[in-house]
Amino acid sequence: MTKESIVQQLSPVGEEEIPVLPIEIMVEILSRLPIKALCKFRCVSKPWLSLISDPLLAKSHLKKTIRNDLLYYQRKRVIISSYNLYSLEYESIGKDGRFDENLVALELDYPLKDKPNGLAEFLPLKEDDEFAVIMNQDLQFCEIERNWVDILGSCNGLVCISPYEDTLYLFNPSTRESRRIPDTPSGLPANGYCVFGFGFDFVNDDYKVVRLGCGTVSVYSLRTDSWRMVCHFPYYDNVRKSGVLLNGAIHWMTCYGDGADLKCVVAAFSLEKEVFLEMLAPNIVKYSFEFVLGVLNGCLCVLHNHHQMHDDFWVMTEYGVGESWTKLTLSLSYNCMKPLCLVQNGEALLQVDGKLLLYNLENDSYRYLVVDGIPAEDGFDANTYLETLVSPNSFCWT
């Protein structure tokens, strides 16, 4: 459908005195609206559905979100995984000093959400068996209990998740659109432990999933909807965490060498060139498996991760410059910490030992946040995403 035909169908019949807006102006107006409203407008008519589903509008909407601080905070969300996926409004966190109000998490619909854990299939029970009836009652909760959802990365409104073992999806929590990533082809190494990273290749206009496993690096391209092996992993295969996206690259803490020659580095995989670049790790890093990476306010962070209490972490104030690592000491100790984002008042939202807290980096004060609707006893994992129209189904050539 051409732009002219869309404009004609959107024009009111019998009211020619009302001027018809050019398609560019319509896109400009729609790109300023929230996602919830745009999803409702899809139901107005087929032309509206076509216009709002156009990737050009999605890109315009995304650009405005990134370039406008007000829209950015309004459309930013926290996604939480705790045997389910939940969304939390980013704008309300720390706004106007309202810390006494509990935050409310919204339960999301996502692929394979109601897939049972399958415990009952291990027992061949019969309906007329009294023992079977008792066992079925005991297993009723287990059958409907959801699997843990791994959040592997987030970029431009798309979140890479694994809602079931060895199953990957690209999922837009705002529009509920999803696309299953095909299984690794038989020609690529598939056995052993794997970690992933997810991001956007700006040069080639392509979303990519990077897989490290069995000493190899494989890349899934959304445009071609296929996997291919890129290279052998040039470092020790001891990476156990998802990669961190920053500046068009996926980052892992790793090492190479042996004995006195052991060297720990930050390995950055360029999504454009699909090669690794090295950055110096902080001097404190002697063994890479004891540390993990994070991102806070556009800066790379190194945090402890070896099951001991610590009160410090490091920030790379100038990207790619190893000498710019700066140590920050906190007024609280943590066993496991993950920086999420900065909120409107400048405080840092952190995930610390299964809880959310706001930390004021200027006066070293903090307070924990209460999130209603999440079973806190089992812990959770969190990440952030933008509310966008980006569709995981509109980038494929095949």
Automatic annotation (TrEMBL):
Residues 15-65 form the F-box domain. InterPro entries: F-box-assoc_dom_typ1 (IPR006527), F-box-assoc_interact_dom (IPR017451), F-box-like_dom_sf (IPR036047), F-box_dom (IPR001810), Gal_Oxase/kelch_b-propeller (IPR011043), SCF_F-box_component (IPR050796). SUPFAM superfamilies: F-box domain, Galactose oxidase, central domain. PANTHER family: BNACNNG10540D PROTEIN, F-BOX PROTEIN CPR30-LIKE. NCBIfam families: F_box_assoc_1. This is F-box domain-containing protein. It comes from Hibiscus trionum.
